[in-house]
Amino acid sequence: MAKTAGRRKIELKLIENERERAVTLSKRHDGLFKKACELATLCGAQIAIILFTISGKPLAVGSPTVANVLDKFLNLDRGENNFIRAATNSLRKAKLRELNQEFNEFNEKFATERKHGQTLEEDLKVSLGGKTYEDCKSNIGIDMLLQIKCRLEQLRKDLQHGCYAESGSSSFEEDYEMDLSKIEGPRDYLKL
Predict the structure, then answer these.
(1) Alpha-carbon radius of gyration of the chain
(2) What are phi and psi of 166, to 5 degrees?
(3) Does residue 37 contact residue 46 with C-beta atoms inside 8 Å?
């Protein structure tokens, strides 16, 4: 019986001889495919190996199939983008619902405050004898303002001395009728 060379370490470099290269590929691709199928079976992995011979002939093996693995690989980026897009859209919709709810609550508060303001304006108009605040404000002359100022100063003095007593006068003009000659201020305002 002849002795064989057995297993020996082969230096990994491109085989120069084209015929030897083709023989090595034909012997080794079966082992590569076998190991890939074993790995897929043991680990439950999806594997695809595609190679082309020196002459351009394609060889492939896949578990479950090469087409399934390639489809999954090619759609991987799209799938992740779809997931990210779906998650982003979900977050946007949630934020939009929250903002819409806040907007509706604000509108309700605004409508309530507007009604409250209209009620206050009506009450003020009634208390002013049917006139609006703007009408009353524009009708107050400088004489009236100076009289109010004097009356307020007198009231402050009275309160400081503790001698304030409510008067029983019947109208605003009667309460605040004063001698304007005692008021210090620009002389042209005091001309009567």
Answers:
(1) 50
(2) -70, 140
(3) no
Which SS3 state, helix, strand or coil, does residue 49 take? strand
d(C-alpha 181, C-alpha 190), whole Å: 7
pLDDT above 60: residue 60: yes
- Give the integer Cα–Cα distance in Å for 172 and 144: 10
Say whether pTM exceeds 0.85: no
Give the three-state DSSP class for 164: coil
Q: Rounded to whole angstroms, how far apart are CA atoms 42 and 61?
A: 16
- Tens digits of residue pLDDT in 114-155: 999 888 888 877 776 777 767 776 777 777 778 878 888 888
Distances, alpha carbon 32 to alpha carbons 44, 109, 128, 162, in Å? 17, 74, 101, 111
